[in-house]
Amino acid sequence: MKRFSIALLALATALAIAPMARADTFDFTFNGGGYSASGEFTTTLTGSPYTVTGVTGTADGYSITGLSSYASADQLLYFPATDGYYADFGGISFANANGVDYNITNYPSGSSNFINVSTLDLEGYGASAIPVEMSVTATPEPSSLLFMGTGLLGLAVVLYRKNKPSNLVLHS
Predict the structure, then answer these.
(1) 99 Cβ contact list (under 8 Å, min separation 6)
(2) Domain interval for residue 61
(3) Does 155 lie in the same domain as 101?
(4) Which residues contact 156 (CB under 8 A, 6 or more apart)?
Protein backbone atom coordinates (compact mmCIF):
# COMPACT_ATOMS: atom_id res chain seq x y z
CA MET A 1 0.00 0.00 0.00
CA LYS A 2 2.86 2.35 0.83
CA ARG A 3 4.40 1.87 -2.65
CA PHE A 4 1.06 2.49 -4.28
CA SER A 5 0.64 5.72 -2.30
CA ILE A 6 4.11 6.94 -3.31
CA ALA A 7 3.47 6.15 -6.98
CA LEU A 8 0.08 7.85 -6.84
CA LEU A 9 1.67 10.93 -5.26
CA ALA A 10 4.34 11.00 -8.01
CA LEU A 11 1.65 10.76 -10.68
CA ALA A 12 -0.42 13.54 -9.10
CA THR A 13 2.67 15.75 -8.89
CA ALA A 14 3.53 15.11 -12.55
CA LEU A 15 0.01 15.95 -13.67
CA ALA A 16 -0.05 19.11 -11.54
CA ILE A 17 3.31 20.41 -12.76
CA ALA A 18 2.83 19.65 -16.47
CA PRO A 19 0.30 22.46 -17.14
CA MET A 20 2.50 24.96 -15.29
CA ALA A 21 5.42 24.42 -17.65
CA ARG A 22 6.02 27.31 -20.00
CA ALA A 23 5.78 26.44 -23.64
CA ASP A 24 8.12 27.68 -26.29
CA THR A 25 6.01 26.39 -29.18
CA PHE A 26 2.38 27.09 -29.95
CA ASP A 27 0.13 25.44 -32.53
CA PHE A 28 -2.10 27.91 -34.38
CA THR A 29 -4.89 27.92 -36.95
CA PHE A 30 -6.98 30.66 -38.50
CA ASN A 31 -9.79 30.66 -41.01
CA GLY A 32 -11.97 33.40 -42.47
CA GLY A 33 -12.58 35.64 -45.46
CA GLY A 34 -11.26 32.98 -47.82
CA TYR A 35 -7.91 32.74 -46.00
CA SER A 36 -6.63 29.91 -43.82
CA ALA A 37 -3.40 28.89 -42.16
CA SER A 38 -2.13 26.40 -39.62
CA GLY A 39 1.24 25.71 -38.15
CA GLU A 40 3.49 26.30 -35.20
CA PHE A 41 4.99 29.44 -33.68
CA THR A 42 8.38 29.14 -31.97
CA THR A 43 8.80 31.72 -29.21
CA THR A 44 11.00 32.88 -26.39
CA LEU A 45 10.31 31.50 -22.91
CA THR A 46 9.66 34.89 -21.33
CA GLY A 47 5.91 34.50 -20.81
CA SER A 48 3.03 36.46 -22.25
CA PRO A 49 3.59 38.32 -24.45
CA TYR A 50 5.94 35.83 -26.07
CA THR A 51 8.21 37.01 -28.88
CA VAL A 52 7.68 34.84 -31.95
CA THR A 53 11.11 33.85 -33.32
CA GLY A 54 10.02 31.36 -35.99
CA VAL A 55 7.00 29.91 -37.76
CA THR A 56 6.29 26.77 -39.80
CA GLY A 57 3.15 25.42 -41.44
CA THR A 58 0.94 26.25 -44.41
CA ALA A 59 -1.03 29.33 -45.43
CA ASP A 60 -3.64 29.05 -48.18
CA GLY A 61 -2.10 25.77 -49.34
CA TYR A 62 1.50 27.03 -49.56
CA SER A 63 4.34 26.38 -47.13
CA ILE A 64 5.06 29.18 -44.69
CA THR A 65 8.59 30.39 -45.44
CA GLY A 66 9.17 32.35 -42.22
CA LEU A 67 8.49 35.56 -40.38
CA SER A 68 8.18 38.82 -42.27
CA SER A 69 8.25 42.50 -41.36
CA TYR A 70 4.95 43.13 -43.17
CA ALA A 71 2.84 45.87 -41.50
CA SER A 72 5.74 46.63 -39.11
CA ALA A 73 4.95 43.54 -37.05
CA ASP A 74 6.33 43.39 -33.53
CA GLN A 75 5.87 39.56 -33.50
CA LEU A 76 4.29 39.45 -30.03
CA LEU A 77 2.02 36.51 -29.16
CA TYR A 78 -0.35 36.89 -26.22
CA PHE A 79 -1.16 33.52 -24.64
CA PRO A 80 -3.59 33.03 -23.17
CA ALA A 81 -5.38 35.53 -25.39
CA THR A 82 -5.75 39.06 -23.97
CA ASP A 83 -9.35 40.25 -24.39
CA GLY A 84 -9.78 37.59 -27.09
CA TYR A 85 -6.70 38.64 -29.09
CA TYR A 86 -3.49 36.69 -29.64
CA ALA A 87 -1.66 39.71 -31.12
CA ASP A 88 -1.53 43.44 -30.54
CA PHE A 89 -1.74 46.31 -33.08
CA GLY A 90 1.70 45.52 -34.57
CA GLY A 91 0.78 41.90 -34.99
CA ILE A 92 2.55 38.74 -36.05
CA SER A 93 3.60 38.61 -39.72
CA PHE A 94 4.77 35.73 -41.87
CA ALA A 95 5.03 34.89 -45.57
CA ASN A 96 4.13 31.84 -47.63
CA ALA A 97 5.92 30.29 -50.63
CA ASN A 98 3.49 32.05 -52.99
CA GLY A 99 4.88 35.44 -51.88
CA VAL A 100 1.85 36.45 -49.80
CA ASP A 101 2.41 38.14 -46.44
CA TYR A 102 -0.06 37.72 -43.58
CA ASN A 103 -0.34 39.93 -40.50
CA ILE A 104 -2.36 38.69 -37.53
CA THR A 105 -3.46 41.80 -35.65
CA ASN A 106 -6.13 43.20 -33.35
CA TYR A 107 -6.78 46.23 -35.53
CA PRO A 108 -9.49 47.34 -35.86
CA SER A 109 -10.56 46.56 -32.35
CA GLY A 110 -13.55 44.33 -32.02
CA SER A 111 -14.48 40.93 -30.79
CA SER A 112 -12.22 38.73 -32.92
CA ASN A 113 -8.72 38.42 -34.36
CA PHE A 114 -8.04 39.97 -37.74
CA ILE A 115 -5.58 39.43 -40.57
CA ASN A 116 -4.22 41.82 -43.15
CA VAL A 117 -3.03 40.14 -46.35
CA SER A 118 -0.42 41.74 -48.63
CA THR A 119 -2.28 40.99 -51.87
CA LEU A 120 -5.36 43.08 -51.07
CA ASP A 121 -4.25 46.17 -52.97
CA LEU A 122 -1.69 47.15 -55.61
CA GLU A 123 0.81 48.58 -53.12
CA GLY A 124 0.94 45.29 -51.25
CA TYR A 125 -0.82 46.54 -48.15
CA GLY A 126 -3.98 45.13 -46.68
CA ALA A 127 -6.91 47.32 -47.70
CA SER A 128 -8.94 46.12 -44.77
CA ALA A 129 -8.70 43.83 -41.81
CA ILE A 130 -10.50 40.54 -42.27
CA PRO A 131 -11.97 38.89 -39.18
CA VAL A 132 -10.81 35.31 -38.70
CA GLU A 133 -11.58 32.50 -36.31
CA MET A 134 -8.26 31.82 -34.62
CA SER A 135 -7.03 29.21 -32.20
CA VAL A 136 -3.69 28.96 -30.43
CA THR A 137 -2.69 26.09 -28.12
CA ALA A 138 0.50 25.58 -26.14
CA THR A 139 2.60 22.58 -27.10
CA PRO A 140 3.92 20.82 -23.98
CA GLU A 141 7.67 20.88 -23.50
CA PRO A 142 9.40 17.52 -23.92
CA SER A 143 10.65 17.69 -20.33
CA SER A 144 7.07 17.97 -19.06
CA LEU A 145 6.03 14.95 -21.09
CA LEU A 146 9.09 13.02 -19.86
CA PHE A 147 8.30 13.87 -16.24
CA MET A 148 4.68 12.79 -16.62
CA GLY A 149 5.74 9.59 -18.42
CA THR A 150 8.17 8.76 -15.62
CA GLY A 151 5.37 9.08 -13.08
CA LEU A 152 3.10 6.81 -15.12
CA LEU A 153 5.90 4.26 -15.50
CA GLY A 154 6.50 4.32 -11.74
CA LEU A 155 2.83 3.71 -11.12
CA ALA A 156 2.82 0.78 -13.57
CA VAL A 157 5.86 -0.80 -11.88
CA VAL A 158 4.29 -0.52 -8.43
CA LEU A 159 1.00 -2.00 -9.62
CA TYR A 160 2.83 -4.83 -11.42
CA ARG A 161 4.84 -5.70 -8.30
CA LYS A 162 1.74 -5.56 -6.14
CA ASN A 163 -0.06 -8.14 -8.30
CA LYS A 164 2.97 -10.43 -8.66
CA PRO A 165 2.60 -13.59 -6.51
CA SER A 166 5.08 -13.93 -3.70
CA ASN A 167 7.40 -16.96 -3.44
CA LEU A 168 7.51 -16.62 0.32
CA VAL A 169 6.04 -19.65 2.09
CA LEU A 170 5.17 -19.40 5.74
CA HIS A 171 5.64 -22.51 7.89
CA SER A 172 3.85 -22.96 11.14
Answers:
(1) none
(2) 23-139
(3) no
(4) none
